[in-house]
Every structure is written in C-alpha cells, then in structure tokens.
Amino acid sequence: MNTDHGRGEVQTDTQNIKTHLPLVTELRNPGMALDLDWVRAAQANTSAIERRAATLPGRRSVKKEYQAAWLLKAITCIDLTTLAGDDTVGRVQRLCAKARQPVRHDILEALGVDGITTGAVCVYHEMVAPAVAALEGTGIPVAAVSTGFPAGLSPFHLRVAEIGESVNAGAHEIDIVISRRHVLTGNWQALYDEMRAFRAACGEAHVKAILATGELGSLRNVARASLVCMMAGADFIKTSTGKESVNATLPVSLVMIRAIREYHERTGVRIGYKPAGGISKAKDALVYLSLIKEELGNRWLQPDLFRFGASSLLGDIERQLEHHVTGAYSASYRHSMG
Asked: Roughly what angle, to the nearest 10 degrees, separates helices 64-76 and 282-295?
C-alpha cells in the first residue's frame, strides 16, 4: 500500500512508514439546494448489493509486511471512542493516552514506526473538556456525540444548543443523529432543514451525520438519506450510533460509499465516511479499507475522509501487529485501552 496524503506515507515496507497527525486538506462541504428529483431517483438493488458485499472478505487478503502497513493505516483512521454511562474523567484520560500512543513502543520500534496516533477521540459532551485538556498540544481532535444521541428525540432547540455547548467546550468534530422518522416517512425537506440547522450550529467544527442505518428500513432509504445529508452540508456520513441492534454492515457501507462517489462526481466535493458499531477485529478493518480503496480510491484512505468508530478494534490491531513482530499471539489483556 502506498498513500501520500494527509498523514504522510504508508509504504508496503513497514520499515519506512512515516505517519503524522491528521491534516485536513479538503475544502468543507458547502452543501447545495435540496434536489428532490435526485433524491427520489436514488434506488438500491438489494440482491446485487448483498452479492457484491459477500465477495469482499474473501477477495482481498494481505499478508506479512503488507498487512502490517494496512493495519497501521487503520489505526490512523480510528475515532477511539468511549460512550458509556459510567465514563469518568480518569477513563477518558487513559483513553486519550492510548490515542497518543496507540501501540506499545517496542512493537513500533520493531516496525520502524514513530509518531503514530489515532484519528480522534470521541466522547459525550460532559467528557469533552477533559479530553481536550488531555490531548492539548497533540493535534488529535476531540469529537462529541450530540443532538440527543443516540435516539435524537429531545426537543429540537435543545439538540441545536447541545452542539453549541460542545463546540464551546473545544470539540473539533460533532457527530449528530438524524431524526429517523423523517426518512421513514419520506419527509426529505424536514431532514434537509434539520441537517442544515445542525451544520450551521457546528460553525467551524466538522459535522458527521449519523444515519442509524439499522433503523431506516431499507437500503434505498439509506441511499436517499445519505444524499440529503450531504446536500445539507454534512462533512461525513456515518452508519450508526453503535447502540442499534444492527450497526455497520458491508451492504450499507457499499450504498453509502456509492452515494459519496456520486455526490463527488456531480459536485466535485469529497465527503467523508465513518462506519461505526460492531467493527472490533483487525480483519474487518482490512475489509473496510479495501472496500474504500476499490470504490472511492486512495484519497479516501486518509483520516480527513475516513474513520472507524470503534473502541475494541485498536486492541485487536495491536495484537496482530505484535504477532507480526514476534510470531506469537499475546493475550488480549496485554493491549488494554487504558
């Protein structure tokens, strides 16, 4: 793998990997007027999408130093996340320490890698300030889930105000949740207006629109909701909150990625993609990265355009990297998040 945008270079030879903190190089999505003809024309051939998705895990396999390089790339694209009701300042501080040093020094030294970090740290609003303080001087952004996460059913003015509170606390990215009912009833104007209001409230902070795809009813709805959110100015579209019964899947990802590709072809604007929920194994991360490379190209393999929403994924990646270095698998507790 050889990519040369954003964080630096990732070669197939892990001895020469140079990795830096995230650098946003894309102009933000300004949005556009709601084009209902385009939205209503969006369809999804479910059987064809599922067949294509089913081929992905078996068609792309990378080994040895190539696999290590891809896994290091995956780390740079992780939004290291804690969204638990029992989160404490201490837990968030430990998570931020892991974001700053995601892989043990001895493993990185053996790989010839220095300075690697995760893409961001994602927390609830109450933990934004501690996360910002813990990451001061690193350049690692803090993302906050907002707008009544995960259900998005609090009063609208409070959802908008919540965004402003998190931005004022120092969040650089805001993960908002859409009102699923607008999608299920086909009220695309309401979804567009809601997304525009959220985008405006974010100011300079980048906004990721969480579609909660497991609750949208069909892949066609996923395609249409993706387009509407992008038209309304979303910088990223994201699959899930991680709290639904069905989270990120390959068929849903394929639909959303192709909507991103179509939006770029029509407008020239690149929108980011974030699969979240249920991605916990290194092998799964490799499948998602290969899907992005095939469908969107190398430019999207950078943290300003691609993120994993994950917590346990990093531990498994670190375990695989240790296996690459030592030839033996270690216990998972040797790669804890804090």
From this structure: 80
Known catalytic residue at 175? yes
Q: Which two tokens stand for residue 103?
A: 């892989």
Q: Is 18 a catalytic residue?
A: no
Q: Which residue among 73, 79, 98, 175 is the active-site one?
A: 175
pLDDT in tens, 137-195: 999 999 999 999 999 999 999 999 999 999 999 999 999 999 999 999 999 999 999 99
Contact between 300 and 5 (Cβ < 8 Å): no
Taking only the tens place, the pLDDT of each residue in 168-182 is: 999 999 999 999 999
271-301 CB burial, b ≥16 within 10 A, e <16: bbbbbbbbbeebebbbbbbbbbbebbeebbb
Instruction: State if pTM tops 0.85.
Output: yes
Q: Which member of 73, 208, 238, 293 is catalytic?
A: 238
